[in-house]
Recover the amino acids of this structure.
């Protein structure tokens, strides 16, 4: 039996009837057409499908769409505002935080989770916080630099790391 | 990967969930889903009904009740890791929660789900054994208290009955003189414990007056190496004594073997990590390390 769910994704409300077995990542990609959220390992390991659900980074391959009923969700498509990049996007741009770009959306959403809890993390804390995200190109150093860039920018501009559309404060 | 079709149910109270569990054939409880959904995606589990406990707010509470810390089954690893109450009253549990999986997994996974699932390489069982915890299970006839020593019975097996719901985990406060530590050798890909050792010991005049150790990842279920505990109680706390006792940490255990670690290697790691965890717990409890 299908279930009606209502979610708010990047500030827009959606209502759909979904099968209980539909995973959140497929709902985002195939029902809403938000293909910025990637499917990598599909086994809760690689973090490519990371989204912010009610203010918390989760792996959308391991959440059912029905579990997200009533939730606020932020995907990579919701990071930029009025064609102004989010500081984490700017960081990845300025510090060359990506090569192929496959892991990047998940990296950025995991990164803003770290920064929401710790506005001034050390390199070790950044690396520990990104433990659940795999990059097969960069060797991670530029990603760490990107997160550090974003941390500095967020502090200087006094912004919340997780924009309100993600259920953050 | 997409799970097989199932019916989804979302009770708003433990009472409703218990009724569903009795009425729906072969139903499974869904907590954070971070053990169950991967199994369903691989079709290793195909439950016809899922009962989602995610909207029962009463199960998500963490509270101190006199000198007992009560952690609701649906408290996430992050809630436990970051809770001031847990950090103060059961620092070993907070330390262990912070070593489960990764940030995203800790945001979603729950203690009740992990404990009821009883993966032989899960982290919590070691800490709960060391903390002398109690598991509260609600069934059709009311709640039941299960001592942690009786709870983990084998590979993915517990003392829970099919129609019971794990609602809470309780543990006595760690008092100021108790030092504790959870050390794990994490599998580099999965993050699960190849070996995980939790130790809690209360020092008295430079000697452990009371010691409990829990070991996970090594046998079919987490266990206490009682021979190690007995050798250490009341003896001067020295590195050499601890190392000698820790040598017994894998004795009598049917040690797991997989592609990553042979049983010999895993048994060796068990002895080394037992020694390190006990030493660290002793140092945190105020013993000098010599």
């Amino acid at each position: 039996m299908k279930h009606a769910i209502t979610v708010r994704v990047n500030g827009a409300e959606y209502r759909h009837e979904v099968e209980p077995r539909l995973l959140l990542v497929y709902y985002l990609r195939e029902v809403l057409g938000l293909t910025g959220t990637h499917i990598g390992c599909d086994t809760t390991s690689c973090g490519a499908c990371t989204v912010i659900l009610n203010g918390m980074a989760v792996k959308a391959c391991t959440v059912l769409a029905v579990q997200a009923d009533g939730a606020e969700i932020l995907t990579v498509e919701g990071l930029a505002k009025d064609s102004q990049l989010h500081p984490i996007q700017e960081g990845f741009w300025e510090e060359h935080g990506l090569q192929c770009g496959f892991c990047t959306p998940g990296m950025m959403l995991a990164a803003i989770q770290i920064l929401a809890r710790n506005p001034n993390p050390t390199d070790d804390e950044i690396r520990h916080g990104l433990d659940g995200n795999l990059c097969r190109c960069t060797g991670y150093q530029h990603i760490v630099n990107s997160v550090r860039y974003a941390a500095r920018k967020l502090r200087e501009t006094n912004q919340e790391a997780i924009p309100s559309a993600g259920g953050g404060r | 990967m997409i799970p097989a079709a199932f019916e989804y149910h979302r009770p708003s109270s433990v009472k409703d969930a218990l009724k569903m569990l009795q009425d729906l054939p072969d139903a499974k409880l869904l907590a954070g889903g971070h053990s169950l959904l991967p199994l369903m995606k691989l079709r290793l589990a195909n439950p016809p009904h899922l009962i989602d406990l995610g909207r029962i707010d009463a199960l998500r509470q963490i509270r101190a009740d006199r000198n007992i810390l009560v952690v609701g089954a649906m408290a996430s690893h992050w809630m436990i890791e970051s809770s001031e109450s847990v950090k103060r009253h059961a620092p070993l549990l907070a330390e262990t929660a912070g070593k489960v999986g990764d940030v995203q997994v800790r945001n979603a996974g729950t203690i009740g789900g992990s404990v009821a699932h009883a993966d032989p390489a899960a982290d919590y069982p070691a800490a709960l054994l060391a903390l002398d915890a109690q598991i509260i299970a609600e069934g059709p006839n009311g709640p039941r208290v299960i001592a942690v020593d009786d709870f983990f019975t084998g590979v993915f097996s517990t003392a829970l009955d099919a129609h019971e719901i794990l609602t809470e985990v309780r543990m006595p406060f760690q008092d100021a003189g108790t030092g504790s530590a959870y050390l794990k050798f994490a599998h580099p890909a999965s993050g699960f414990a190849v070996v995980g050792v939790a130790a809690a010991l209360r020092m008295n005049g430079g000697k452990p007056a009371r010691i409990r150790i829990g070991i996970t990842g090594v046998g079919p279920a987490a266990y206490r190496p009682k021979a190690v505990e007995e050798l250490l109680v009341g003896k001067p706390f020295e590195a050499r004594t601890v190392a000698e006792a820790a040598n017994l940490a894998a004795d009598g255990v049917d040690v797991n073997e997989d592609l990553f670690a042979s049983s010999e290697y895993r048994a060796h790691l068990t002895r080394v990590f037992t020694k390190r965890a006990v030493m660290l717990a002793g140092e945190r409890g105020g013993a000098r390390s010599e």
User: Anything to note?
Assistant: The domain at 87-161 of chain A is CATH 1.10.150.120 (DNA polymerase; domain 1). Chain A has two domains: 3-75, 87-161. DSSP finds five helices and five strands in chain A.
